[in-house]
Amino acid sequence: MSTTTDHKQDPEPGRPPLPPFTEQTARIKVQAAEDAWNSRDPKRVALAYTPDSQWRNRDEFLLGRDQIEAFLTRKWERELDYRLRKQLWAFTANRIAVTFEYEWHDHDGHWFRSYGNEMWEFAENGLMQRRIASINDLPILPEQRTLREHSG
Predict the structure, then answer these.
(1) Residue 138 lies in a domain
(2) pLDDT for the residue 12
């Protein structure tokens, strides 16, 4: 039995909505990112980025999905019970800016609220090719938490 195999790789699948963004599609993109990050699944989150995506997250510079996935794995091993909220700040044809806050606790039970801004740049296929994040942490008491997992 003989089969023909095409050895060409499929092009990178797209991730709608695609640029150029409207306010509505930018909001959809932001909500999709919030949902993915709240899954705390590094592999799922990393798939939203181009294979050669460039990141700056605080003082770390990352290149590519493998480094992004490793970073997120370390992050969620350290930032327990992580819960995030993102809001659209601005958008252009292939860029989106967001503000965000998230809450988490460390292994000693100390809670934090982290605030920041992100600037995103997207490839034509809707995958993020660049992410620049600036983040500040604020220690909080457990009773000061405002972001909680939805139950049910």
Answers:
(1) yes
(2) 73
How many other C-beta atoms are found inside a 10 Å radius of the C-beta of residue 97? 16
Structural domains in the chain (count): 1
- Per DSSP, the residues of 38-64 read HHT-HHHHHTTEEEEEEEEETTEEEES
Q: The pTM is what? A: 0.89
- Distance between CA atoms of residues 92 and 101, nearest Å: 22
pLDDT band at 8 (very low <50, low <70, confident <90, very high): very low
Please provide residue 51's backbone torsions phi and psi, each rounded to the nearest 5 degrees. -55, -25
Q: Quote the domain boundaries for residue 130.
A: 23-144
Residue 71 lies in a domain: yes
- 29: pLDDT strictly greater than 60: yes
Would 42 be classed as within a structural domain? yes
Q: Which CATH number does the domain housing residue 67 bear?
A: 3.10.450.50
Q: How far is CA 18 from the centre of its chain?
A: 16
Q: Considering the domain boundaries, does residue 151 fall inside one?
A: no
